[in-house]
Design goal:
The structure holds two protein chains of two kinds. Chain A is α+β, with helices and mostly antiparallel strands. Chain A has an eight-stranded antiparallel beta barrel. A two-stranded antiparallel ribbon of chain A has the order 2-3. In chain A, a hairpin with a 2-residue loop joins strand 9 and strand 10. Chain A is elongated. The N and C termini of chain A lie far apart (76 Å). In chain A, 41% of the residues are buried. Chain B is mostly beta strands. Chain B is 4% helix and 44% strand. The N terminus of chain B is likely disordered. Classes of the chains: A alpha+beta, B mainly beta.
């Protein structure tokens, strides 16, 4: 039997078929991935009327590590602190692909009892209760998003400062003094509604590893997205006019194109999904939300 | 007569006669331990019956007018089709950092077709002179350094040639000398310990590197127990160290215990059981981590490796039917990541402090490639630790003396205990310190010269925040060896 199977004519035929099939499979085998939806596939898009004020009761958000856009140079060089972002601070904020692994000292400048600059690290925050979206009858819309890293393991809410970082700019703070300086540095600015402090409950203790300071905290972010909206079928079109992160703006992290959202309104519930894998309000990672009428 | 890989061209002025034949090419398809790789039978026949000076046209010397010169020309034409589940990789995967999940590149597929692994080589062998044989070896493929502005079309359709091996060798009754570029002695590259896979070597965690070197070796045996001792001075990873890297190794072979050795994409060939150990030591002198640099920082680095080729079910002479063989490698080292090829784990040097957000930011210009060493939080130079192991197996089915159909698979791991901790928190999400790889492949030599393979490959890396990135690759490959 084996001899027959391995006879030359059979082998030749088999070879041709196998080679052709392999070519076909390989060269015709491309198939699609999941696009940009991450772990959050789109919800139903049945249309309806989204007009009203809605509170967010559920969201699907994947953790985006790298932003779609780097920080704008003028934002970066403005008065510190630079406005916070949803994605963690980047090793090189003004470059999309970092060429170094970041600053061990997190840009700390401590002198004369004052923190003049620092970039505390934070993980990707998750959407919190109290977030809401309003599609007003006058075709304006307002989205208020509250994010936080509260509840994360301590290691994900910690920045370490080696001794050389504490003294690099002429200061020599204790960890308690450093915590006080950081709290003051991140005091909230003004706005309506008032934004939260970007870093909260800051505590610094002496690091057992090198006698530097380990500073713990949690990160909070309030994003306000305002503009005008229109509807076509099951898609909402949002044209942004005001976009703030804890009261500040970031030029390259502000939506510059019309955002499209698919939706399904049924009774007192509304489901929103970024169209074609996009993120809601261009907040990278925030893919879908379920809302309830207020 | 030992097998001859490739065509032996006996040009006018060249004699293919009494001297030993041209060896099999090393490359990613080196000869198995102790034995040159088997060539396509038809090519061997051509070589064996090649014309001699006596029967050739009047002399028109190409390399030399001396009688007894040999010139070997060899290589293969190759096509690879690759479907990847992510957009992380080019055609060559090796130890490349994968794209994180939940990104466009990390969640979407890619297909590539490439001929860049095709290669050609030449070997010239001088007439034996008072018991000493001199030879020169050159091999190239098409993985040359593309300019960053190269388009996809240019990358794949007009690839740049790359030098793989180029060395001179002198074999004497006392010792053998090798001067030029070939596999590093560390890991005994090209000596029969590579895994059988259509994936472009190395697989993740496998030692695989070529380097300019001066090597002295002594072969004792080979029957019944062969022993090869070698030491080499190698181009340093850090030229500013001002001293060459030092590599040394020993390899034992058991001539009476033969198995099927399949190296990279080449068909299996009979080779003896082999065990090898090797070591590398180097000095690194790295530029001071300061905007106004002071003295170089000096550290010493090194590594140890052990390899084995184990014929579990031995071959019967040249008949490899039902032969089952294993290859294995374990390596541990610090500051030697470059010897795994493309291995950095994403480790970069830190940024100089920029507390005033100045632009352009102060830049640190390292004098050594990324991933070998970095500076810790206190400004001390530290080398990056890596340890890895690779296990591979191949089984030859009992058709055409075991050289028609065979299957292979391999598994490898690599781990660093300090790649993440030596990276500032800002960058830890971009650094991976654990890698796992496995593949399974089926091979078919439709003719002794025309070969095809189907392979499935899985590659996973764990980033500093615990996130796993995985790429699955399906690959189909075709070769004609000459």
């Amino acid at each position: 039997m084996v001899g027959v199977l391995l006879s030359r004519p059979v082998l030749r035929a088999f070879s041709s078929v196998a080679a052709t099939a392999t070519l076909g499979v390989v060269f015709g085998g491309g198939c699609g991935g999941v696009g940009a939806e991450g772990t959050c596939p789109a919800l139903d898009a049945c249309g309806g009327d989204p007009t009203g004020t809605w509170k967010i009761i559920q969201a699907c958000e994947y953790e985006a590590v790298r932003p779609a856009q780097p920080t704008d140079v003028t934002d970066y060089m403005g008065s510190p602190p630079i406005p916070p972002t949803l994605t963690p601070p980047q090793p090189q904020p003004t470059q999309l692909v970092p060429a170094n692994s970041g600053d061990w000292c997190s840009s700390l400048d401590y002198n004369d009892g004052t923190v003049n600059n620092v970039t505390l690290w934070h993980d990707v925050p998750v959407l919190q209760p109290g977030s809401e979206v309003a599609f007003n009858p006058d075709q304006s819309y307002t989205a208020l998003y509250l994010f936080s890293t509260q509840g994360y393991p301590q290691a994900r809410n910690t920045t370490h400062f080696a001794p050389i970082c504490l003294t690099a700019n002429g200061g020599d703070p204790t960890c308690t003094e450093l915590a006080a300086g950081l709290t003051k540095f991140y005091a909230p600015g003004g706005g309506t509604p008032p934004p939260p402090p970007t870093f909260n409950n800051i505590e610094c203790t002496t690091s057992p590893s090198d006698q530097g300071c380990d500073c713990t905290y949690f990160f909070a972010l309030q994003v306000i997205d305002q503009g005008t909206w229109s509807r076509s079928g099951d898609t909402i079109f949002e044209q942004n006019s005001n976009f703030t992160y804890n009261g500040g703006t970031l030029k390259l992290a502000t939506p510059a194109q019309t955002m499209q959202v698919t939706f399904c309104q049924q009774g007192s519930t509304l489901e929103l999904s970024g169209a074609s894998g996009a993120s809601l309000s261009d907040l990278i990672g925030l893919r879908t939300m379920r809302l309830q009428a207020m | 007569m030992a097998a001859v890989a490739g065509l032996i061209l006996t040009t006018p002025g060249f004699v293919f006669a009494g001297d030993p034949p041209v060896e099999a090419p090393p490359a990613s398809t080196p000869p198995p331990a102790g034995t040159p790789a088997s060539p396509p039978e038809s090519d061997e026949a051509v070589a064996e019956s090649g014309p001699t000076l006596e029967s050739a046209p009047p002399p028109a010397p190409l390399l030399s007018g001396e009688k007894g010169w040999q010139l070997g020309f060899f290589g293969w034409a190759e096509l690879d089709g690759m479907y990847d589940s992510t957009q992380s990789l080019t055609d060559s995967a090796t130890n490349t950092t994968l794209s994180r999940p939940h990104t466009i590149a990390g969640d979407n597929p890619r297909f590539q077709g490439t001929v860049r692994d095709s290669r050609v080589g030449l070997k010239a062998v001088a007439p034996t002179f008072e018991g000493m044989k001199a030879s020169a070896y050159m091999e190239m493929d098409f993985f040359g350094q593309e300019p960053p502005t190269a388009t996809q079309d240019q990358f794949f359709s007009t690839p740049v040639p790359r030098l793989r091996h180029f060395y001179a060798k002198l074999e004497t009754p006392v010792v053998n000398l090798l001067a030029g570029q070939t596999y590093d002695l560390y890991g005994w590259g090209g000596s029969g310990f590579f895994v059988s896979t259509p994936a472009f070597l190395p697989v993740m965690g496998e030692l695989f590197h070529r380097n300019a070197q001066f090597r002295i070796s002594k072969v004792l045996g080979p029957k019944p127990i062969g022993l090869e001792l070698a030491v080499a001075g190698v181009r340093p990873a850090d030229r500013d160290s001002a001293v060459p890297d030092l590599q040394a190794g020993a390899k034992f072979t058991v001539a009476g215990w033969q198995g099927a050795s399949a190296q990279g994409p080449r068909q299996p060939a009979a080779a003896p059981m082999a065990i090898a150990v090797s070591a590398v030591g180097r000095r690194l002198a790295v530029a001071d981590f300061s905007a106004v640099p002071g003295d170089l920082h000096v550290v010493y680095a090194g590594g140890l490796s052990a390899e084995i080729f184990l014929p579990v079910i031995p071959a019967h002479g040249k008949d490899l039917s039902n032969a089952l063989s294993l290859v294995g490698e374990y390596s541990i080292g610090t500051g030697v990541s470059d010897l795994y090829l493309n291995l950095t784990g994403g480790v970069l040097f830190p940024a100089l402090p920029n507390p005033h957000n100045a632009l352009p930011a102060p830049t640190y210009t390292p004098n050594i490639d990324n991933g070998i060493a970095t500076f810790d939080a206190n400004g001390a130079l530290r080398t990056i630790d890596w340890q890895g192991f690779v296990v591979g197996a191949n089984y030859s089915l009992p058709f055409r003396q075991g050289k028609m159909l065979w299957i292979s698979g391999c598994y490898s791991q690599i781990y660093s205990d300090n790649a993440v901790t030596l990276t500032p928190t800002l960058g830890q999400n971009f650094v991976w310190n654990k890698g796992r790889y496995w593949d399974a492949s089926a091979w078919w030599d439709i003719t002794p010269a025309f070969q095809m393979a189907l392979s499935f490959q899985s590659m996973t890396q764990t980033f500093g925040d615990g996130v796993d990135a995985t790429n699955y690759r399906g690959e189909a490959s075709w070769w004609v060896f000459f």
